[in-house]
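Working notes for the structural subgroup meeting. M.R. asked for a predicted model of this chain before we commit to crystallization trials. I am recording the input and output together here so anyone reviewing the notebook later can reproduce the run.

Input as submitted:
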Amino acid sequence: MEYKVKDQDKDKDKVAVKITLRNDNKTSLTIQGLGAFIIITGVLYGIFSNNIWVFAFPSVVSGIVLIGFSEIIRLLHEINERQKKQSN
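Returned structure, recorded in token form:
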């Protein structure tokens, strides 16, 4: 998705500045949300069970791995969209 932000005047030529949404891939957003949920619940459960290293550390590592996978998916989707635009 693209949104028109503003028009700029340079040498009497109008240049449209556009900004794109960072993440319009639903799969990537879902995996990123799941990673954040795992981190938050693991840390909270570790704090409340007084055993933070057993629950919090693995959940933080797992959540970061999931967030990393979601970033890879987002980047691959972005590359694919750029190649589709260039081929047309």
